[in-house]
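Priority: low. Protein: TonB-dependent receptor. Input follows.
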Amino acid sequence: MYKGRSKTQWVGFTFSALAMAIASERLSAAEASVAGATEHVEVVGQAVSLDKALKQQRNSDAIQSVVHADGVAQLPDANVAEAVQRLPGISIERDQGEGRFVSVRGLGPDLNSVTINGTLVPSPESKRRAVALDVLPSELVQSLSVIKTLTPDMDANSLGGTVDVESLSAFDHDGLFYTATTQAGYNKNTHQTSPKVSGAISDRFSLGDGIDNFGVAAALSWNKRDFGSDNVETAGAWDFTDGAKLNSFEQRVYDISRERSGGGLNFDYKPDDDTKLYLRTLYSRFKDSEIRNSDSIEYANPQAEGELGKAKAKRKLKQRDETQEIQSYVFGGERSMGLWTLSGQAGYSESSEDSPAGIAGATFKSISSFPDSGWYDSEKPRPIIGAGFYDPANFILDKVDVKKEITKDKEKNIRLDLARDYDVDGYASQFKFGGKVSRRSKDNDTEAWTYKNFSKLGFSDDQLNLDRFSKGELDYALGRYGPGISAGTIKDLIGGLNRDKFYNEQGSRVNDFTMHEDINSAYLMNTVDIDNWRFIAGLRYEGTEFDAKGTGIRNGVYEAQDTKRDYHHWLPGLHARYQLAKNTQVRAAWTNAVVRPTFGQLAPGFVIEDDKAEFGNPNLKPLESSNFDLGIEHFMGQAGTVSAFLFYKDIKNFVYNNDLAGTGAWRDFTEAHSYANGDNAKLYGLELAYSQKFDWLPAPWNGVIVGANTTFSRSNASIKGYDAASGQTLKRDIDLPSQSNTVGNLMLGCEDDKLSVRLSANYKSAYLYELAGVNDKAHDTHVAAQTFVDFSARYSLTKNLQVSFDAQNLTDQPYFVYSGNSRYNNQHEEYGPTYSVGLTFTHF
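Result:
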């Protein structure tokens, strides 16, 4: 659609068109004002949203960052992960260009927790604790906060922070409120258009003798996004023994349809001034339909750039449907009885991931090798290969892997808290204590089939030739790709076979597990206000009982595995806040936290074959962290603040992948890949934030809003491993995985009675993604720095009707992973920008 126009020209054209539209609108408004016909339209703007969030941050006993629902609406964020990335100290991991997992202060997503309305959200994915927040549409959220210092009455299960999602309440608005939005998006990479609709409604009613004491709120959201990406990756297949030579690489074309829907229904009841009850419900569904075509080129010997030699090739297809669901139900209340306050909450959350039988991999091998083949461009490898590589007649079906998997993660909890206000020598104080019982279970069930040896089943070469399965040349942004593969034709081929004869018992049984994690906790804490000081001191206890059941295979013989453990933690904490001036306060905190390893790391399954082994480690110790925070906040009128926070974390028992061959029970093995606890790791940093509305300047500059935040952090840890070549145990220093040294946001906005525009940029520096062997630093994978630039514009046609324009990823930022050095590709993926227009009707 935009051929012949460069990316820079397109971005420039977009901003020029918007600037002219804005200028035209201001000119029209000025002319109407002269004629005495200007209509004054009040809109909920950026400054109001920022102000609400800052007030919540200012009054909190913990160090936290907040964004409100109307703040989410000011940005082109499709889900909760993208909305929360705007906050200080936050970065996100993306999947196919969309925000997915949240990192806090440089700590990876699995080291943080997510709660909805105060109850833990379990993870839909089989191996992770991290919650993929792209499952949650941003329209279902009233506010988002990231709590970075935990008070003793909070779960101590996050090292970086807890992402708390609050859904809509009828008491967030006065009287009847409703809103509806319809939107259409366009992806430049695939030229696909995607629809989106959402809405919310709330109202209050009078029950009994009360007035507006019962509230009902509901929200719905649905969108379907059709898009894709283009990828080239080596997966680390570099040979660095003599320069940089490549063994193989793969080109991929993704075609994705992503449907996201959700709803919430919430009730609030306040029968009197001393009592409140609530029921919060939330359901979200995320369906991903993906078709991935790929081709791979494997050289007979590792080849340097431009060098030619013999190569073989494969063409592959993966086709899957994956549905993730999150549902959360929270019932709670609070009762004031003079100096006493009793509060409690019961919560149930369930996450699941269901992948029905799909093509995990259909592989076509080249009938013969391709001579005089090579590659060029180490960052985005491109093939040097003959025309036969692009002819489907030169490939024949080798095997088809089919897989289905279902994971369920459930968490039930009951919490009870009792607080009493009292006075000590004229100083207001409160003593609070309570307990919580949590029961969590995670199950994974995998079924796999492998179809191969087709010629022995009576199929001819003509029936297996890619010509019969080809669906024509695919569009590939990185160069020429060749023929795509039809999933339907492959399913027709294997559909007539008895699948029981192709059952993959090892692939089915070894990945199955059931884990139970029961946590009993109790705490006590005391809060006292002394002049300009507020102190909170307390102690939390958490006792954990863990049970993991699964199956392993040792030289063809299956073995049942059952590991039971229990451990206990006493976690003291101390918070202090000092009111330095009316609008300036200093905060300090010493807290302790404990985070359990991921379910993939704890998995009980194993595969042992001769002198090679791969297994999880159910006996891993939990990660423990002592955290120190010190900072200052200054508030400057509406939407204005400047803050600085120092943080330091001393982490014990961090987990890393390791090869245990040559040590202990694995002394006679050449490979024994598992997970191990490291010793101590350190993380320290500085977090800066600033926002300001320039409302004291003359018009139109009084509508300008500027926001900026950045986090500088450093980490150091060390890992150990056995080196078979030298026969010694080696040690090397590393950064913590997923920790970026610099994360930052910059926002420039402008608003008046009708128009609101905002340009925002998000930056994340490079970080270590995955470790190779202790003696193989060159094959560590790193994610390169990324900068995303987004634009939003909102214009109020009337008091209740607003039109919007959003643009995401204006810089067409790719995802680039490299092996050891940024010159050597591990993965390069491009998504393209996305544009959308919408219309919102709101009654308030």
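DSSP finds eight helices and 43 strands in the chain. Residues 46-843 form a domain with the Maltoporin; Chain A fold (CATH 2.40.170.20).
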